[in-house]
Amino acid sequence: MRKQRYMKKIHIILLVFIAGSIALLISLLNTGSTYETIADAKAMPGKFVHIAVRLDKSKPIEFDAQKDPNYLSFYAVGVENPDQAMKVIYRNGEIPNLMISERLVLKGKYENEQFECKDVQTKCPSKYKEEMKPTEKSIDQTSVNNSAKTNAEENKY
Prior knowledge:
Elements: H1 2-31, H2 38-43, E1 49-55, E2 62-64, E3 68-78, E4 85-90, E5 103-111, E6 114-123, H3 129-156
Parallel strand pairs: 4-6
Antiparallel strand pairs: 1-3, 1-5, 2-3, 3-4, 5-6
């Protein structure tokens, strides 16, 4: 009889632990993966945010490897709202593919009338977009040819 009560307590403790773990995981998953706008970042100075932007190619990019190889500044505009703009300071050197990227995901804080960027993720255009179409055509043609051969072979027997 005592053993059954003991097992029930262990089961209850394990269920509470599992429920708590699931609740923690759900709360952690809900905190990430949303992008703020430039206006949101400006409204929350000092708060760490992720912002999806485009490089403003009409304004200069400041990078001088001789003077300071870690300093890079450029201007960004909003992806959804190109009227929103801000200066971005990145202190980790040059960003590969900056000029050819379709958009950028900036991670950092808006402070002192500029965005202090800690990390940048570039989203470049896919080099496979145009190559996919001929490939899809050849795959479709191959499948049509194979099905025609299969039908002809089935009709033989």
